[in-house]
Amino acid sequence: MPRLPPLPDLDWPDAENRAAPFAREHGDVYFSGEGLSEKRAVFLAGCGLPEAWSGREHFTVGELGFGTGLNLLVLWDLWRRHRPSPTARLDYLTFEGALIAKADAATIHAPWPELAALSQQLLASWPDRARGFQRIHLSDGLTLTIVIDDIAAALPQARASADAWFLDGFAPSKNPAMWAAETLAHVARLSAPDARAATYTVAGDVRRNLQAAGFTLAKMPGHGRKKERLEARLTAHRPAPGKPPKRIAIIGAGVAGACAAHAFVRRGCDVAIFDRANAPGAGASGNPLALVMPRLDAADGPTARALIEAWLYARRFYPTLGPNAAQSLDAIHLPAARRNSCVPPSCLPTRRWTKRCFSHPTKASAISAPSLFARTLLSPA
After folding, report:
1. Which residues form the domain of 83?
2. Structurally, how many domains does the chain consist of?
3. Domain boundary among 234, 264, 299
4. What does each C-alpha distance from 283 to 101, 188, 254, 259, 374 come to in angstroms?
5. What percent of the chain has pLDDT over 70?
6. Using an 8 Å Cβ cutoff, are 65 and 147 in contact?
7. pLDDT for the residue 224
8. What is the pLDDT of residue 296?
9. Is the pLDDT of residue 359 over 60?
10. First CA to last CA across the chain, in angstroms?
11. Are 358 and 268 within one domain?
12. Cβ atoms 156, 182 nearer than 8 A
């Protein structure tokens, strides 16, 4: 399997069809009609939103088929207007096999100025073209987790307890893997008790596979040219998910401990940090400068992917801490041994790669004064 996920082969419609592109590989459009009204009717109303998250401090939506990102935008817009509380969190877990390029997504979003502000935020943090998990923190307590890979490989790796599902793959006749029995069984596995699901299709195989996975179905009036759509509720017995801990103790107030504390606080936890020093970053994190750079492995595997996923997260995370927290720079990565003398550029997309095998430039981040960085993370809001 190629290290980089494929780019979708798009065919752009005429002005009458607005910005709904056609995926040549699957022979299907990304959405039909006006777009937003369909998504609001099929997915938001189909999953009982916003009423379903009323009074909740944490709500999780799963999605099969990230596509253009419009489902996320209409959900985000609804969340901003009906957020249960200023501290409520919304997790959005989505799966995509071929990520649309950022420039194409901008073209697709353009016809809807009412979503322009949210689109700009999403495009500014658009996922990278790399297989695996990427976590992106947006505003309003919204966290996007996108898994880029073939659906059969991606779903077994996921762990979640989703309260609602947007089943939005290409038509079952065009993309059967997205609607297979194994796929929808994983949807049930990743669902909370009484989870809801919604989709535009009422195809027989989809209905049978959802029922086999433990969902009870209801055909509802369709939207636009579609006569019917489907709503589902998970009625099979599911053990209630365990409550995550709310009080966390961390030993060590260096960069690692500060990052861990920051992540738990983001999740609404009470965190206590213990360190023998009198201030954060007093040990190894007291160095005047730190360099963070990826390790790129030629072979694909769990370790290689984890390193890339951590690097992609770090690139987004460090700059959010302030203008002086980290600076991006180009570094020359020289091979440590002859066996590593030619790391293929397919490992990770970067803006520039030399054609010479013995070295390649890669983006790195320099953290200014790691001890100050740790104190910044641990400062009260």
Report:
1. 10-234
2. 2
3. 234
4. 43, 46, 7, 15, 11
5. 85
6. no
7. 78
8. 77
9. no
10. 45
11. yes
12. no
